[in-house]
Amino acid sequence: MVAKRFRCVECNKDANELHRDYSNGILKITICGSCQKPVDKYIEYDPVIILIDAILCKTQAFRHILFNTTLNIHWKLCVFCLLCEAYLRWSQLQGSEQSNDPADIIRYTKEWDFYGMFGLAALELGAFSVGVLSFLWLVQWLLGFDFELSLLLKALLLSSYGKVLLIPAVIWEHDYSPLCFSLIKLFVLTSNSQAIRGTLNNSSISVAILPLVNHI
Ligand SMILES: [Zn+2]
């Protein structure tokens, strides 16, 4: 059986284990041979602390989630985020078509509009993901560094979790809603950048291409 490869959350180097279990019940966190820091300090942390660090866009937290856990909810999370975005667009569409005619109330039952918005959001996410991955593949081809496309896609999808904030922003609508939507988009882009940075092996390359990724 092939041992699962982990990654050091600090320097992104491969590691064979996160901790060593001694026979007398004592656990000892493995120290990274490259940076001399614990391979994954988060194995001792409460999930709430890990979530807070992920919200703070720390690359170490993204590396822990992506490489050192068995969390495999990125596709479900992706569908949920698309539903949130579709709901935002659908609510804005309904708002723009508002009329005093009582007969127009039936517009709110037009669920096909919602499905259309869902399809549009999915297309945009697909185009964004293909654009980012194509760009990184081109950089890989030019500069000759390695990365896994599937891991990058997982990082992109997981780090888009901020889109769930669109739902409360729509429900508690107020004068500052457009500003909230812009801030949520900025937060999602920042999370995407940090997750990609945490996934790439070469930190200097990731720092160089991050501003470009943000503009795709
Ligand atoms: Zn290390």
TrEMBL record:
Organism encoding this protein: Hucho hucho (huchen)
Compartmental location: Endoplasmic reticulum membrane
Biological processes annotated in GO: intracellular sterol transport; regulation of plasma membrane sterol distribution; sphingolipid metabolic process; sterol metabolic process
Keyword Cytoplasm: no
InterPro entries tied to this protein: Arv1
TM regions (residue ranges): 114-139
Family: Belongs to the ARV1 family.
Cellular component, GO annotation: cortical endoplasmic reticulum; endoplasmic reticulum membrane; Golgi apparatus
UniProt name for this protein: Protein ARV
Keyword Protein biosynthesis in annotation: no
Lineage of the organism: Eukaryota, Metazoa, Chordata, Craniata, Vertebrata
Entry membrane topology: Multi-pass membrane protein
Biological role: Mediator of sterol homeostasis involved in sterol uptake, trafficking and distribution into membranes.
Domain of life according to the entry: Eukaryota
Record key words, sorted: Endoplasmic reticulum, Lipid metabolism, Lipid transport, Membrane, Transmembrane, Transmembrane helix, Transport
